[in-house]
Design goal:
The chain is an alpha/beta fold. The chain has helices at residues 13-21, 40-53, 69-82, 108-139, 155-163, 183-186, 192-212, 237-245, 255-266; strands at 4-7, 24-25, 28-29, 31-36, 58-63, 90-93, 175-181, 219-224, 276-279. The protein has a seven-stranded parallel beta sheet, sandwiched between helices. A two-stranded antiparallel sheet has the order 2-3.
Length: 284
């Protein structure tokens, strides 16, 4: 079944890697709604790469500033319309911005942009996606939901079959996955606003998972550590080396490794929900 997947911040880094990874998902080419704000050239490159690798993947750009509530709502509506009225099965809140510096030196406008892009946009997009997700899940036949099913009516035989893995609970038909940060768990000096936003994203993950669990819609987050992205290239070589020194794995992770983890979580049974999963090489 073709899945409609909305990925924010998809023009580069982790978002682009996720888009490439999920161009084919659950055995079928996907329908991707890919968001970016200003890097339209980068997004065009990602779209071209995917189109060449997976010609049957349908891609709809969603160009907007996620910190602007009216703009993101309008862009979401246009993207759904352009994809044939298909609301997302899967929402991946990846877009994020950060500044390094003392909180007292941060302008009010920049503070609100960080909170809006990293947290308010994730909440708002979830709000927009959830009605369609719930309709999908409640319109599904029982055999497509998360409880194990078997054609064998003998209870003892059924128990044996489940124990040996011949009857597997369905993977989610719909899901929300937030790309968070270790700083949302422990906080970072000189990244107070970013840490606060990611901490809020983690709380959202745990709370919304409880709301949507009855509908078999999992909500999880990945708390990323040091990932080799443009955001972290703002650090000097000396600063990077100092951070890597603290990581037991002894290196940064790649965006592709995060994308593989996204795919694994989205392929897990719906019982995996409300989790903020550390992806930091043993750092935190």
């Amino acid at each position: 079944m073709k899945k409609t997947i909305l990925i924010t911040g998809a023009s580069r880094g982790i978002g682009a890697a996720i888009a490439r990874r999920l161009a084919v998902f659950d055995g079928s080419p996907s329908r991707l709604i890919l968001n970016c704000n200003t890097d339209t050239e980068g997004l065009a490159t990602v779209i071209d790469e995917i189109n060449r690798a997976v010609p049957d993947c349908q891609i709809v750009p969603m160009i907007c500033d996620l910190s602007d509530a009216e703009a993101r709502s309008a862009a979401f509506a246009r993207a759904v319309d352009a994809s044939g009225g298909h609301t997302p099965h899967i929402l991946i809140n990846n877009a994020g911005i950060a500044d390094i510096g003392l909180l007292q030196d941060l302008s009010s406008d920049r503070l609100m942009a960080i909170l809006s892009t990293n947290l308010a946009a994730a909440l708002d997009l979830a709000r927009l996606c959830i009605p369609g997700m719930i309709r999908r899940m409640h319109d599904m036949p029982d055999s497509d939901l998360s409880m194990p099913q078997t054609n064998d009516t003998t209870s003892s035989d059924s128990s044996i079959r489940v124990a040996f893995g011949s009857s597997t609970p369905a993977v989610p038909n719909c899901a929300i996955l937030n790309i968070s940060s270790v700083w949302g768990q422990v906080g970072a000096s000189c990244e107070v606003a970013y840490s606060a936003a990611k901490g809020g994203l983690n709380a959202m993950t745990r709370a919304l998972a409880k709301e949507l669990a009855p509908s078999s819609i999992p909500v999880n987050a990945i708390a990323c550590g040091l990932i080799d992205t443009q955001m972290n290239r703002l650090l000097s070589p000396e600063e990077l080396a100092d951070v890597i020194d603290q990581i037991p794995a002894g290196r940064m992770a790649t965006a592709d490794e995060v994308a593989k983890t996204v795919e694994l979580i989205l392929s897990a049974p719906t019982y995996l929900t409300g989790q903020v999963i550390g992806f930091d090489g043993g750092w935190i």
